[in-house]
Amino acid sequence: HFVVKLFGNSEFTLRFISVLFGIINIFIVYKIARSFFSEEIAFITLILFSMSSYQIYYSQEARMYTMYLAFSLLIIYYFLISIKYNSFAYAPYIVFSVLGLYTHIYILFLIIIINLIYFLKYKEDIRENLWIKANMIILVFCLPLLPFLLKTIAIGGVANKVNIILAPIYTFKSFLFGLTVNMNFFVIMMSLFFVFLILISIFSNRRYKEKKVIDVLIIIALLFILIPWLQSIIGKPVYSNRTLMPVSFIFLLLSAIGISYLFRGIKITIIVLYLIFNFYSLFNYYFIDKYQKINYKKLFNVIVDEVDTQKKEMIIIHTNIPSYASFEYLNKFRYKTNFENRYLSEIPEYKGSKLKLFIRDSWRVFKEKFKIDIYAGYDKNILTENELKEKINNYQRIYLVIDDKNGLKQIDLPHSHVWETDYVPYKVFELKDLWWVNNFNIKDIKEIYGCKLYKLEKKI
Q: pLDDT class for 204, splitting at 50, 70, 90?
């Protein structure tokens, strides 16, 4: 919000905070590794993390994930420092916990896991009254989050229940070698070798305080993956690689500890192979259409170049959400052209508990009473079949945007267990599926990878 207010609404400013925290995370990771382990292990961890294609990917995405990782790492760091020195780092633990909770809901999950570890194993390392007091302060500061928290818990899953049994395997692969390197023989062999390195770090004979840190990190990693994975198997799907980002650091640190036990030549070979895999993953992301974000701006600029913004008989219609959402940003916020931009769909029927209904209606009260424009059940720009029938003759020109299978599938790239299946998250439309297109002549077709733009003009 503040960056946009200061520097404008551009792709650069939207991505700036992600880049900033991506860089900050490099320093945090080195600080954690060096605080508990040797300089060699810290240096190897630094190389693995800073050259991780997975971390670079999220350092460019205009979302909260690098900030979420930063606060997660700092919460873990101050907990580990506290049990190492038997002195609770009271203030920073509270500050970063509160900031983290205002960044991502999974910070709550992390705090619960850390509390579980504390009460089961480390009550003697931190005074219990101080620990309880700190958690109560965190709770008080986060009370304003409660309505948002209830809404998030009540409103369905956040992922797809596809290939979920194998999801942790794909997560491990993605954390080590990136999202765009698909499973193959070489990736499997490298993954198995890194499992071996992590096992070395776990079972090696290290000093007591180092062993204590490794034990805490292993428990956090296992619970962080296991609980949402089991929940997704038996209930609503909540498993997603990006929500597990703190585990990515843990895997890399434990791998660095394992590498430190190897002979010098083998160390260099493993690090070089790791870098080759990640450079290959980055090459895919930057140069191969299949792995890139769909560049809807190219199509939107076609409309901007052709249309007088005062023409009221023009409309942009989308068959799917990905292109619609991107056009909505470009239309309302980036260029402020305010074309009529509509998503062709039926208003979804409500399905769920009375609690979900109550929460949804409460959000609508916020919208009506306080003029807060927040999601409350369905998008106001949905264009239903009946509305389209009534209005179709009012338009002289329609720009029709159809996402194809490739474009619709790209949205699942961050969910690698879904990406490496044939699953497509939305219905794939073709022109023949749209009866009203027969009322128009196709004047032009523009195509980018994943999407087509049809310029339709009314038949005389």
A: confident
